[in-house]
Design goal:
With 93 residues, the protein is mainly α. It has three helices and no strands. The longest helix has 27 residues.
Length: 93
């Protein structure tokens, strides 16, 4: 017998095994999201890219290096926003 399809409120809390195609094989526990680790790494990347971007601007190097670092910082900032949204929504991790 199959499980009933998930309801809309189930999606707001995150579905178990959603990102783990091998969940349950061989008695393995379902994978847990590592949102907190991802948040720490994204924050670290945001800080490092921003600081190094400003340091590169002070050096006598092409501005393209600073632009690349600032683009990476923006990507990290967007990732932080997405992670915080998912954690507020109640996803585990």
């Amino acid at each position: 017998m199959t499980d009933p399809p998930p309801r809309r409120p189930d999606y707001s809390q995150g579905l178990p095994d959603h990102h783990d195609p091998t969940a349950g094989i061989g008695g393995a526990r379902p994978a847990q999201s590592a949102l907190t680790l991802r948040l720490v790494l994204a924050t670290f990347g945001l800080i490092i890219c921003t600081v190094f971007g400003f340091l590169v601007l002070r050096l006598d190097v092409p501005v393209a290096f600073a632009v690349i670092l600032f683009v990476l910082a923006v990507i990290a900032a967007v990732d932080v926003v997405v992670i915080v949204h998912r954690k507020r929504r109640g996803e585990p991790g």
